[in-house]
Each structure stands twice: as C-alpha cells, then as structure tokens.
Amino acid sequence: MTTSNGQYIAAIDQGTTSSRCIVFGADGRIVAVDQQEHSQIFPQPGWVEHDAEEIWTRVQSVVSGALAKAGLTRDDIRAIGITNQRETTVLWDKNTGKPVHNALVWQDTRTEDLCKELGRNVGQDRFRRETGLPLASYFAGPKIRWLLDNVDGLRERAERGEILFGTMDTWVIWNLTGGVDGGKHVTDVTNASRTMLMNLHTLQWDEKIAESMGVPLSVLPEIRSSAEVYGEAVGELAGVPVASALGDQQAALFGQTCFDIGEAKSTYGTGTFLLLNTGEKVVNSYHGLLTTVGYRIGKEAPVYALEGSIAVTGSLVQWLRDQLGIISTAAEIETLASTVEDNGGAYIVPAFSGLFAPYWRSDARGVITGLTRYVTKGHLARAVLEATAWQTREVVDAMEKDSGVTLSALKVDGGMTSNNLLMQNIADVLDVPVERPFVAETTALGAAYAAGLAVGFWPDLDTLRANWHRAAEWTPRMDEATRDREYKNWLKAVERTMGWIEEDQTTGQ
Amino acid sequence: MAGSIQSLERAAAILRLLAGGERRLALSDVANALGLAKGTAHGILRTLQQEGFVEQDKDSGKYQLGAELLRLGQSYLDVHELRARALVWADDLARASGETVYLGVLHQRGVLIVHHVFRPDDTRQVLEVGSMQPLHSTALGKVLTAFDPVARAELVESEREAFTAHTVTDLDAIDAEAAVVRERGWAQAVEETWTGVASIAALIQDRRRNPVGAVALNGPVERVCTAEPNGTAGPVRPELVVSVREAARAISRDLGAPRF
Q1: Total structural domains in chain B?
Q2: Which residues of chain B lie closer than 8 angstroms to A438, CB-CB?
Q3: In percent, how much of chain B has pLDDT > 70?
Q4: What is the pLDDT of residues B100-155, one digit of tens each?
Q5: CB B134 within 8 A of CB B193
Q6: Which residues in chain B touch residue A471, judged by CB atoms under 8 angstroms apart?
Q7: Would residue B85 count as lying in a domain?
Q8: Is A26 on the interface with B (CB under 8 A)?
Q9: Is residue B260 part of a domain?
Q10: Which of B66, B90, B109 is the last residue of a domain?
Q11: Do B104 and B230 reside in the same domain of the chain?
C-alpha cells in the first residue's frame, strides 16, 4: 500500500471546542502538538452549531503547525489517524464541497421534540435493540432529518443524490482525501454507532430505521472498520495513508489499551465518560447505559462496549468556583477539601438538568443534603469530589449488572486526574485500584494506535499494550463498613432529587 | 512591646490612609491627615513607591495604593495548582529518564511530596503523595534550602539525622553546598538519605521568581551516576541534570515565570 518509511504517526483530534494535531513516535510519546479553537455558534437557547468549513481550515492549519513544530515533513509521517467529537452532523453538496447548513453539534437539543415524535407509542427505546441507543437529541440520525426538513429544497437535492452526510470523521476524511476531487465518503463503525441508523449486529445501515427516520440511504457514507487505509491524503500530507477513525471516547478506550473484556476507562472532564470493553458480545443495557461499538480493526471481529456518561463532574467544581465563588481555581477544591477529614454528613447530588445514567429522570434537580450547623465549606468541597466518585460507582454498578463482568481496575484520564484526593476517593468507593497512564492524551493516542496498526507501524495489540505505563496508582483504603454506610447515604441523597419538577413544568427550570 | 520603628509605623499609617476613603491623595493631604512634616511624608511615600506599594498618578501627582500590595495578598501558590501545572512535565521527565519523579514544597521542617510519578517500568509502586522527606539530605530539600531563606531557617532548627555514612549534618558544610547549588542551579544527593539511591533536583519558581517548590528525579546510583574506572559511583549523569532542569524550567514557565 505504502512505501513510506516514516517514523511517526499523526493524529487529528477534531474536538468540540478545538482541533488538534498530535505527532507520536513509535514508543507512543508525543513529539509535537498544535491546536486551534473554532467558533461556537448559538443561534437560540439550546441550539449549538459549528461551521464545518472553519473546522476544515483549522484542521489543515494544525496539521501544518504540528509538522512545523516537530520539524518533520510528510515523508516522516507513516499514517494519519482521526478521532472526533461524536454525533455532530454536517450535510454538504458533493459537487461543490460546501456545507448546506452549519453542523448541528451533539449538545444541540433542537431534535428533542422530533425524538419524542419518532418514539411514537413505543417510547425512547424504539430503536434500542438494533442501535443500542435511546431516542435522544445527541444522536446524528434525527439531526439529519431536521436538516432535511428545515433547509429549503434539501430533501429533493438529497433524493437526487447531490448531498452527503457525515459526522466529523467523515467530513475530515472526505476533505483530506481530495474532497470534490475523489474524496472518500466513509465513516467508521464507532462513529456510525452514534447515528442511531446503524444496526449493531450487522454493522450496516438499518434500512427500516433510516426509512422511519426519513433519511435517504444515498446520503450515508460507507461504514468501514476503525483501522484500515481509507485512502491517501492530498495537500500538505499528500500520499500519506489516512488509516483510522474513532469517536473520541472510543479512541480513549483504545489509547488506554483496554483491549480485553472487562477493561474500562473513565475520562474525567467537565462531564465524565466511562466505557467498558464487553468483547465481541452486544450487551443490551437495562440500567440506562448505551451499547456502542468500541472499535474494529480491519477485518477482525468488532469489539463492543457499554458506555455510561455522567453529565456533571468537573462542571460541579466550576460551579463552586464561578457561581458560588468558594474557590478561585479548580485545583483549590482539593486544598479546601483537605482541610477536613470527611464530608461532615453533607452530600451534593448535581442533578442540574435531571439525573442521567443509570436513572434517566428529567424531573430531578440538584440537592445539597445532610446540612447541619457543623458543616463548613471544607465539607462541601469534599461532598463535591465525592459526588463524582459516587456517580462513577453508580455507572460501574450498572455496567456490572448489565454485563456480568466485574471490574478489576479503572484506567483514568482527563483533567481531573490531577486531583489526588478525588482519585483516591474513586478507588475507595469502587474498591478497585485506579490507574493513571503516562500519556494524558489518550484520545489522540488511540487514533494514532489504530492508524499505526493499519499500516503495520505497530505489529499488534500486545506491542501497544507494552507502551502503556502506569504513572500513578491509587489503591482502595476505605473499610467496607464506611463504604457501605456512605453509599447508602449517597443513594438516600439521590432519592431526594427525584420528582422536584412537576409534570407540567418539565420544560422549565 | 519594645522598640517599634517610627518610620515603619508612619508607613503603615500612610498605607491605611490610602486604603480608606478617597483612595487618591496629594502629598499635602497625607501630611495633614497624619500630622507629619511634608518632607517626612514625602520621604516615606517615595520609599513605598520604590517598593511598588504606592503609585503616583502622573498627571495629578496624587498617590494611591500600588499593585505590589495586591500581589502580596495573592502570593501563596496552591500546591494542587502546582501539581496540575506540573503534571505533563513531570510525566515527561519520568518517561524520558526512566526514573521516579517527585515534586516537593517546603512544609514545616521538611519537604512535603505533592506529586509523585512512578518509574515507568510497571513494577508495584506506592504513591507517596502527602509523605515527608528531610530537608538536609535530599536533593529536593537542598534546592529549597539553597533558594528559600525560610527553608534555611527551618533547617537550622531541625534535627539533622545522619541516615547513612554520606549524610551531611554539619551546618557550615550544608551552607557551603547551598552556595554551590545557588551557583549552578541544581542539587544532588547521592546515598545521603537512602543507601543505593541518588537524586537530582532543580528549583521551580513562580512569575515573580519566588521559590515555590522543586522537582526531583530519584533512581538507583548505578543508573543516575556515572561509573568511575574503579567501579565506584562517580558524578551524576549530566544528561539527567539537563532533563531535570528542563522540567523545572517548563513548570516555572507554566506558572508564569519569565524565560531564563
């Protein structure tokens, strides 16, 4: 396929707020990084859009930037991997390459009513058996439908075969491999698994669901594996194979080398995403988790995952900083929490916009409970950190119930891993070791690994596993009686959040 | 209370005056309010101005509080902020050198370990965050003692235990080594706390070049030091010194310290 002897892999990480290009060496260490933010467009409350053309410009620019910083040329790059914000949806004209509308970002809630309508008499689990997903506004399928319904003449153009759909992986790959001049219109199984249009078992577009959703098959890209050569780049990286695509959370799973059944990673940012490798088995969730494709390497069998997301983790710390002003930097939460021995009986459940996994209660709202005259801001800081730990515990419990797999360790990444007290707390409440690897950029690393595997830069998964090194490990120190008592108290606090919003005000605050 | 210094009392009174009420005062306002001769008030104001505690408005010639006072109030660097900023660089140092990395700050009479990165060989290691190391016999402690007068004072007061045959406990010898550390910008400790262990440390500074902590690499003597022809341990490896100093500079830069 390629004759390049390049000693580096370039990963493009097209994220929600920025695009980055990271160049990795054979040992998985970072050689250079370049990053550029793009505009967030908010046309009305709840709507979030990106300009896909701007994103493509940024991507080209960070690729050049990273190469320049590393002092490398395209001859040094063996392959390019892509990872991306998931579910964000763009439609474009295949003859001009111009988007027909801004991309609808995963956070955009404009399809909420449409999702209810699509649920008909069945409800939000109408397509769950085939797709692993509940009908929710994040996913791409309903976003395509909204665009077809709301952009003048678009449905007709789509039916004439002039329009292409893509999540950000597809958009970047199409442009990278030539755009209007022979660009490859492909997506990978992990990104396709977030459209609500792919059948998890066949890994093909589900024609019935596409029809129910009003999405013509002609707009959809070809579904490929996560690690194979989709085509060769043009431009700056001309001739370099474009060899992987993975949604960001799946890429982090791959970068953390969670290749075995029962291995899990948790990425702690403003929100938290926990993914558990369930092997070649599609595990249906009865506890509010999503079933998704973890990755697929070339023609090998796909590896599935259960996903649990926690809406509010790092953003609870930000709330304490920005809304309450109790701390002045995020790192200070640990200082404040360290001034006390325990939570003083206080619990904070940050159900700011309802409870997510495993409850899915939109009528819930946040509470601070167990308040007495004794409670100080130190106790509240501790309760803030414990909220993240207990929410992790609830997602892990749900995963164990759904999959029958018992977690033996949790691999962590993301900004909050610098919080030592939090990491210890998570180990304590899960009663398993928590491990932090050296490379913090697990998402980009995962895309690089998949691309490197596809072109033979790395021979096999074992080689990648050997690159994973533990930078820190927190071992459980909490006794069982304390853990049980605290968990019971937490669950009691969670109960207090439910039913706060009355039926007729669910759309309000 | 014996021996208060009159000019300091007056300076404090001027600062209080500027902090309250009108904020901007002319020389005559200050002198009148505190019952001072204009010349006296001017002398004190000029000194305060040189120290940055008072600023003079160019157009009106009036005095107001200076930015330095604000900075004084914020000078404390949160150790968790330090860890968050240092994480990437500490990881990189451990990965590149293959050795254990610590970040330490002065705490009471010792070095508090605020961050610990495992040696990247996946052997069983225990996180030592929150533990203490001695000031006089570790590279971290020597750096802090050399650059932070408070650490030096604590060291003088502390009981300097001789952990090994190589531990230096004599204050004059410690001060002499501190002078060398200040001169070259890094410290070493070879088997001075733990037999068989050598460490190299360099200073982390904040944006005002205050010493806020130190970063160290620890490893077996055989890997950290060069070998003499007769088989004994020689000086620490210069390439490791370079790596430690680069990490310290990178962390300092992230804390806003000017480029060296």
Answers
A1: 2
A2: 91, 94-95, 120
A3: 94
A4: 999 999 998 899 999 999 999 988 999 999 999 999 999 999 999 999 988 998 99
A5: yes
A6: 91, 94, 117-118, 120
A7: yes
A8: no
A9: no
A10: B66
A11: yes
